[in-house]
Each structure stands twice: as structure tokens, then as C-alpha cells.
User: Fold MaoC family dehydratase from Mycolicibacterium hodleri.
Amino acid sequence: MSEKRVIVQRGLWFEEFEPGVLYQHRPGRTITEADNVFFTTLTMNTQALHLDAAFSDALPPFHQRLVNSMFTLSTLVGLSVAQLTQGTIVGNLGFSDVVFPKPLFHGDTLYAETEVTDKRESKSRSGEGIVSFAHTGRNQHGDVVATASRKTMVRMRPAEDTAGEKS
Assistant:
């Protein structure tokens, strides 16, 4: 019996990233009330706009609770992991230009896309490179609800891994 080819799901090696490429991450993530309340209380954020329905319902212009923006940011980046950085990232180097032009509400679905904006080999860490991303989050209507720039340290392809397969 011949040996089966095995392909391990992973993110991209440094060499596989191309500036200008846009990745659409699917599926999206529908945000529930439980998600918002759990994240908000877990992170000790006592903002009534996330926790108190009566308070939020009385406030214009939204008249409902808002999804915690840090949950929105975390989920936006998280939606990109399987496709881009699963098992290949060394770590996040920083976030900048984080903007939330519209809120998310309970029941909204967050869709993510990421553009590779830059990459360069690390000057101080052999076998690793720096990849810059522009993340965009949209709700189910296509409205932009979050954007962020992120720099990551990513591993280069190991010499023994030439096709992403294990034999």
C-alpha cells in the first residue's frame, strides 16, 4: 500500500506573503449577547453601553447595547489566523491606526478581510520576517465597522519543508 500524502493546515510562511494581496476570511462570526457580556466582564470593562440594556436603550443615537470594540478588534484579527498565521507567526509586533467607524450590535455578523501591505526580512532574527497587514471588518450589510494595521513577525519556510507537506 502506498503512503498517503498528508497536508497540514497552517498559515503562510514569510515567503508566501505578497504585498497587495487581499484575503477574505470566511466564514464570518455572528456576535451574540453572551459573547459581548462575557468578553466585557472578563476584561473588567464595566461600561454600561455594553452591559446595561435599560441604560443603553435610553441613549441616542443607537438605543441599544454596543458590542465591546476590543471584542470586535480581537475577533477581526482572530478571523484571519487560520488563513494567514496559524503556526507560522512568531508574535505580534504592534497595532496602529485602529478605528471603529460604525458599531456592531448583538446579532450582527462580522466578516474580515486582510491586505498584506508590506514585508521585509528581519535584520536581527535569522529565519524570520516582518509582515504588515491592513485588517478590515464589515458587518453583514458591508458597512466597515473596524480597521487596524498590524505588524507581525513570521517564520520563513524551513529548509526541509519545500511544499507544505509531510511525508
